[in-house]
Every structure is written in structure tokens, then in C-alpha cells.
Amino acid sequence: MTEKSTHNAKLADRLLDWNRRNLRHDSVLSSDLIAECFAPQFTVFANGRRYAAEHGNYQEFLESFKSTISTIDYRVDHTVATEESIVLALRAKVLRTYNCIDDFDAMLLLQFDSDDKVTLWHEVYFKTSTHPFNQ
């Protein structure tokens, strides 16, 4: 891998860690927190839908998205990093506040700007299972 593709891989790892910390029902989001990883203007493609995003409307989306999440974790199975982007084949495990686990398979394409902020989040995901969780 080149220095830039290695750097993109590190940025993707940082983003997944950010998600683990912040995409929880008990986290407090702000525009400043979102700006840690996301450019002021970016594009989200999720399962065939395209959204023009900025910190404010993405915060609104994330507040709803995280409202039932106790924890979210990822297992990256494959990574393809280039100078321009990185693709992750991953599995996500979401523990819900109502003691249920949702498992997802996903392909995530990310692009970053010169400030190391996400400019493109392009994801295709599929729920593979849902099962109860007894604490």
C-alpha cells in the first residue's frame, strides 16, 4: 500500500471508533463532534438513496438513528485502500436498548478531503439476523 492508502485505512479505523463511541443512545452529539470526522458538506449514499449532508442535518439523522442503540461494533473482513478512497467489507453488530441484537453485512466506500474529513459515505447493508439478548 502507498502512504496515502495506508493513511486512508487509518482514517477509516478512526471513523469506526468514532461510531462506536458516539452512535449510542446515551451519547450527546453536537456539530463540533460531527466535524471531528465529517467535512462541512458531504454525500451519503445508503442502500440506493442519496443525501446531501452537512453537520446540522446529519446530526438530526444520527439522533434518530442512535436512539435505540446501546452499542455498535464492527468486524472488518476485507479492506481495499487506494489513494482516493477505501472500501470496507464489514459486519456490524448492534445491541439495541430493548435487548435485541441486529447483525448486518455491509460494504462501505469512504472518501476523505485534504483535512482528513469524510466527503463520501457510500454504504450498502443487509440485515442478516435479529435475535434476543439476555443480559
Q: Can you walk through the features of this model?
A:
The chain has a single domain (3-126), classed as Roll (Nuclear Transport Factor 2, Chain: A), CATH 3.10.450. A hairpin with a 2-residue loop joins strand 1 (38-46) and strand 2. The protein has three helices and six strands; from the N terminus they run ααββαββββ. The chain is of the alpha+beta class and 135 residues long. It is globular, with a radius of gyration of 15 Å. A six-stranded mixed β-sheet has the order 2-1-6-5-4-3.
Number of strands: 6
Strand ordering within the main sheet: 2-1-6-5-4-3
| Percent in helix | 25-40%
> What is the beta-strand fraction?
over 45%
Radius of gyration: 15 Å
Number of domains: 1
Based on secondary structure, the structural category is alpha+beta
Q: What is the terminal-to-terminal distance?
A: 42 Å
Principal-axis shape equals: globular
Unreliable stretches (pLDDT < 50, length at least 5) are: none
The largest β sheet comes out as:
6 strands, mixed
Write down the overall mean pLDDT.
96
Run of helices and strands: HHEEHEEEE
Q: At CATH's second level, what is the architecture?
A: Roll
**From the structure provided, what is the oligomeric state, counting identical versus distinct chains?**
single chain
